[in-house]
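Subject: Protein-tyrosine-phosphatase structure
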Amino acid sequence: MVLYSNTRKTEVFYCNLHCWFTTQSGSAGVMRVSRISARLFLSDLDSALDPSVLARRGVTLVINASGLQNLSYPALEGLQLLHVPVQDRPHAPLKDHFDQVAERIQQNRTGSTLVHCTAGRSRSPTLVMAYLMRCEGLSLCQAHEQVLEQRPFIRPNCGFWRQLMEYELVLFGRSSLRMADTACGVLPEVLQDPGDPGSSAAYSIVM
């Protein structure tokens, strides 16, 4: 993770990243499945419906945050499904599902868990970050960094970011990020320089 105090650099980075993802999203080489930790994966919808993807990774729990129901998941023995009926909109109450999803991931001892939405950019990364905060004790900044390192094109909408920040405040009584308005949308900023606990300066996250 790189920290910049110049928000303009952040805007340019995210705009370039968006252009890259738009041109590459149809390519098989783009990260369809990302390994977040030893038994936790994040993916797009197509990957979640692919029996070889699930079998190869030992997936026994699929969390569907695509907002779509009646999907044709592979008929693999022992496969469990959890549906999160939320659309990718800023005011959608995804936070209502943070605790349930985190608990199901933590309780899945029989194999790996795969969390997916449609593209694996907004809803599913948000749920994974909430899990990392609640069950792994990471701050939101740390959770974001961990997910981003494995899946560099994630982009939760501004409403989901605010819900994550509220969740972090409930869990830990403090916030590690704030949101900043830029030409490329609302982007997260670290509240203070991690190298100087006494600093009050804000730094934009550029990954």
